[in-house]
Amino acid sequence: MSDTDTRALKEFFLHDEFARQNGIEIVEIAEGYARTQVRIEPRHLNAGGSVQGGVLFTLADLAFAAATNSHGTLTVTSTANITFVRGANSGIISAQAQELVNSRHLPFCEVRVIDDAGNLLAIFTASGYRKEDIPFLPTLPTPVPTPPK
User: Fold this and answer.
1) Each residue of 61-97: b (16+ CB within 10 Å) or e?
2) Could you say which of 13, 22, 95, 146 would form a disulfide bridge with 63 (CB–CB 3.0 to 4.6 Å)?
3) Options 3.10.129.10, 3.40.50.2300, 3.40.718.10, 3.40.630.30; CATH of 3-132
4) What SS3 state is found at 22?
5) Residue boundaries of the structural domains of the chain
6) 57-88, pLDDT tens digit by residue?
7) Which pTM value belongs to this model?
8) Per residue, what are the HEC states of 112-143?
């Protein structure tokens, strides 16, 4: 995967408004691999003071999307499962996605969600569907930055 392709894919995913507005970013992409991260803020915590499960799911789902779309064909999630194994309430959390099956239509990926000390927080697995008739198009307009709150 070229540097140009990597930049184009990162730019494409800037259009994921939900992830972007929650501070989730893609920090690394390679063919069949991606890493995302988020710096935990009070808005990410649930009533019990731990990171909300939806934050971890979104973090993992974006890593899955970046890894499976790295081949140049639009891929969407068809099934996803997450198992939470440990809580967190601060620091930087990252998700590392590795495509285990790169088939023509149905890729399968495992994503490990870890804290900044390397502790496993969750394991996410997902299958996708590749839309052959929709090639990846990195020519979308750049989104307008969201003002800080």
Assistant:
1) bbbbbbbbbbbbbbbeeeebebeeeebbeeeebbbbb
2) 95
3) 3.10.129.10
4) coil
5) 3-132
6) 999 999 999 999 988 888 999 999 999 999 99
7) 0.86
8) EEECCCCCEEEEEEEEEEEEEEEECCCCCCCC
